[in-house]
Amino acid sequence: FSFGAGGGGGRGGGGTTYQNLIATKMEEFTGTSDALTNACAFALCASVVGLVALKLSRRTMTMMIERSATREQERGGGRKPKTTLKELKCPSASDDEKVAITFYYGTQTGTAERYANTLVEDAQKRYGLKQIFARAVDCEDVKPDVCEEVLSSEKCAVFLQSTYGDGDPTDGSADFCRWLEETATDGRMPDMLEDMHFCTFGLGNRSYEHFNAAAKQVDKAISGLGGKKMMKITLGDDDKSLEEDFEEFKEALWRQLEKTFQLKAEGEEGDFDVEKHSYAIRKEEDAEKVNELTKIRERKSFEMSRGSEIPTQAKPYACPIKSRKELHAGKSDRSCVHVEFDVSQCKGLTYEIGDHLGVFAENAPDVVDRVCKLLKVSKQTPMELVRRDDAPKSLLPVFPGPISVGIAVARYADVLSMPRKTAIKALASFATNKKEAKELDLLAVDKAKYHAYVADPHRSLLEVMEKFPSAVPTLGAFFGCVAGRLQPRYYSISSSPKDVTNGSGIVTATVAVVKHKTKTGRVHEGVCSTFLQNVREGDRVPVFVRKATFKLPKDVKAPVILIGPGTGYAPFRGFLQEREYLLKSKKQELGECMLFFGCRKEEHDYIYRDEMENALSEKVITSLDVAFSRDDPKKKVYVQDKIQMKAKDVYKILRSPNGAVYVCGDAKHMSRDVNRALLQVLQREGEYAIHEAEEIIRRLVVDKRYMKDVW
């Protein structure tokens, strides 16, 4: 900087005048005429002004992003507004010949909602707006105080009900299902729904003991309230192919609607409009501005909750990883990791023992590379999706942007699940190779071919795209109707907020890393378990808590049995921490606690061994029985065998007036085997007949003294 008359001038000599003015002002500011002092002061002021300008610039960018997110929320991407009674009640058709159909859905991951919206669209295409009025309603919006009024307004209703956990309705539909069951059971209104024709489609998994229990409950309750069944309940099975079950249900539904209401098919609902189910791409001429926005958005590509807010699935908390360690010994050929999430700065995130941690994972880097190669686009290419004004309801809300294609694929594209038939149809429309286009078209319409090539071997979308490389969808089509949206994975929280060591600032998850070979020869790696296996300290992972009813009895003296082999021990680790707190910090007398744990080999996968044995020595638990299924090649020993060995003690707790049993782990085999063992204990020790033993178990379930957290 040059202060004084000798300085160089700008245009027309104005520079000298400008410099003299600055020099005068700096002398007034500093109180000295020393040129060096004033030059340093000026440089400091200029730096401060520059930093403020930079901060304002970044704040402006952030505000632009938030305004963009707000626009997308208004277009359907945000939390939905409360639905009024007037909106919920079925509007009476002005034309007596028009049939009003409502598709009610109870959803956990969005599948039932997608099916309901698909049925609305297909019904409108098939029958036209002159014959029908069709709409989709979320059961979560139908609160108990308006259920009677809303359902009584229906002439035709289709219920799409998901079941999760141990036969439970979804979180959102729990109140609706409870009201239906209680109202139907009390028998006071057997004709309340006598004007309603209805049918039910269940979304479940046959590997669970209570297969489609929530859907069966809804179907039975509607019948009990006088509803007229159009057709037998359809039980969709995700263990095989839920998509195929849904397609069969849809075809049967059309036949019944046409038979019951004399509807006439006018169009072909099977003509899938790829363009309509695709997003538009926002264009921005200013490349530098887009790149800056992209950098900011990729740091917060989820609409994250602030530390004072309660994190939700729609707005999770970007939680830093405190630590991650392998639990299996080096001899094991499998992996199980203990992950600690630091929630100390998120005051809105609270949990109790037995709750679940929802985790948003990312696809592995090699998966992202393969997808981008197939899409023929660079991972660094910035993109921002825009929902069209005429987009169907089944098209998911856009995710925040702009972000790079690579980040979008990593965080949002479900490419390792089986592709839906509509996805294959969309790929066929983009195939430039005629042979590939023909094969894809056949896969999309031929049930036998789809089952043989996709459903039976569980072939992934990525595998299908690699098999038909000429089918290169646009980015709007890929994220709109080809790839599903990655869903959060849930883990039983394996800690207690009352842990004497970490307190409520740490949430832990115990994660079995999924890795196995499929029928196609592909090595399948679980998206979330692999992701968590590779996280490092300081990494931020979007999480939220899902509340559960899997809790210890309120009476701390009540005797309990905990049965959890492998990672099924996860919630019981939290239970033991809670009991240790009550015993040591509160000096409370605890009831008996039997712990049954199982694994393959003592030297391979006896996870948390020191903690369990310490709990026994500290009298946090009263007994510890561990089954090793592979240590003795001649005889496999499982937890159900250990239960039989402790039959007398188990029986005493089963018949105690306040005793409780908790089971966590595999639903397909372990849970059923344990249930069978408990029945045998009742028969042998109590000399009950099988039907009497089953009634005792049933009563324990009803009283919430026999609880399961199974998958």
Summarize the structure.
The protein has 711 residues and is α/β, with parallel strands linked by helices. 41% of the residues lie in helices and 18% in strands.
Task: Explain this structure.
It is a single chain. By secondary structure, this protein is α/β, with parallel strands linked by helices. It is 41% helix and 18% strand. The strands form 7 sheets. Strands 1, 2, 3, 4, 5, 6 and 7 form a 7-stranded mixed sheet that branches. It has a 6-stranded antiparallel sheet with strand order 17-11-21-9-10-18, covered by helices on one side. A 5-stranded parallel sheet has the order 24-23-22-25-26, with helices on both faces. Helix 12 (421-430) packs antiparallel against helix 13 and helix 21 runs parallel beside helix 23 (670-686). It starts with 13 loop residues before the first helix and ends with a strand. Residues 1-15 and 60-78 have low confidence and may be disordered.
What brief labels describe this structure?
alpha/beta, globular, 26 strands, disordered N terminus, six-stranded antiparallel beta sheet, 18% strand, 711 residues
